[in-house]
Amino acid sequence: xxxxxxxxxxxxxxxSPNQQQQGPLVVNLQYVxxxxxxxxxxxxxxxxxxxxxxxxxALDVQARALxxxxxxxxxxxxxxxxxxxxxxxxxxxxxxxxxxxxxxxVQPDVLEPVLLVECPRLLFPFxxxxxxxxxxxxxxxxxALTPIDFVALWQSRRGQGGAPAGTTLA
Length: 170
Hints:
With 170 residues, this protein is of the alpha+beta class. Helix content is 25%, strand content 32%. The longest helix has 27 residues, at 111-137. The radius of gyration is 21 Å and the shape is elongated. The termini are far apart.
C-alpha cells in the first residue's frame, strides 16, 4: 500500500471526471454564431454627425434541442442595434447572434425557464462585451447595453400566448 496522494487529475473522491455527476446546467461551449456591422453612410456619417445617434435595440432568445429527446440544447441570444442620427440617417447597424451549447439536467416542467431565462442570462455579459467592442472598433461610442431582466421578458412573452417568436423547444 502506498502513502502517495491520488493523481492530480482525479478529484479527492477518486472518481474520474466522467463519473462525476453533472449539475443541472452545464455550459459546454459559447460562440459567435453570426456577427454583422454596417456603416451604410461611411465615411460621410463620421463628419456629418453632430451628436450621439439614437440607438434602438431588439433582443430575441431562441432555444433548440440538438437531438430529439436529448438534454443538450443550443441557446442563441440575438441582438440587433440600429443607430440613427437626429436627421434620421442610419449611423450603423449591428447584428449579433451569440450562442451557447448547454447540457440541461432538469425536470421537464422547468426546462423552458432554464433555457429562456438562465441560459441567456449566462450568455448576455459576453454578447454585451462583443457588441460594445464592435461599435467602438467601428468608430462610434461603445454601445453599453443595460442588464436585461430575462425573467420579466420570458413572463411577458408567455402572457402574449406562449413561447417567444422564434423559440423552439423540442
